[in-house]
Amino acid sequence: MLTGGTTVANLFGHMSGRQKGMVQIWDVVGFDEVADLQKMPKEVVTTMKTFCESGTFQRGQEAVSGDASIAMFGNTNQPIDVMVQTGHLFAPMPDVIRDDMAFIDRLHCYLPGWEIPKMRNDLFTDHYGFVVL
Predict the structure, then answer these.
(1) How much is the pTM?
(2) CB atoms < 10 A from the CB of 117, how many?
(3) CB 3.0-4.6 Å disulfide test: which of 5, 28, 94, 125 passes with 38?
(4) Greatest CA separation found in the chain?
(5) What percent of the chain stands above pLDDT 70?
């Protein structure tokens, strides 16, 4: 889980290839506050868009692959019913994502957290499981 900005080298590895990036090491890279993507260098967003499309990205002279999913978390600034009536659910996202239809096309899921029940003791188990709501 990332809080705040990050660099291309942190996410996708160093140009030298000696140090792997998060998308090569982890199963999921989560951005705690999607609004922080606005502050990231354009190269991070561009490389992330390429990675979301193909699972590969360019580092130096070679194409590199990674298996991580990209997850973005954030809050809305208005009540949901107001957002739905006056705009759209992507409105809280930074404009580098919201206004880039190619990036939006690469999103695989938009999970409205307000529709997920709060955690309760009866939702926990001592065994492996898959939660379906």
Answers:
(1) 0.73
(2) 7
(3) 94
(4) 52
(5) 97
Question: What single-letter amino acid sits at 109?
Answer: C
* pLDDT class of 75 with cuts at 50, 70, 90: confident
pLDDT digits (tens, 9 = 90+) for 14-62: 887 789 999 999 999 988 877 777 777 888 888 988 898 888 998 888 8
Please count the CA atoms within 13 angstroms of the CA of 132 that sit on its side-chain side: 1
Q: Residues near 66 by Cβ (< 8 Å), separated by ≥ 6?
A: 12, 21, 23, 24, 51, 55, 56, 57
Contacts of 53 (CB under 8 A, 6+ apart): 106
| Structure-block tokens of residue 70 | 């990209």
Task: Give backbone dihedrals phi and psi of 44, rounded to 5 degrees, phi first.
Answer: -65, -50
**Cβ–Cβ < 8 Å for 64, 15:** no
Q: What CA–CA distances, in Å, run from 98 to 9, 17, 58, 60, 85?
A: 24, 32, 24, 29, 18
Residue 133 confidence (pLDDT) above 60: no
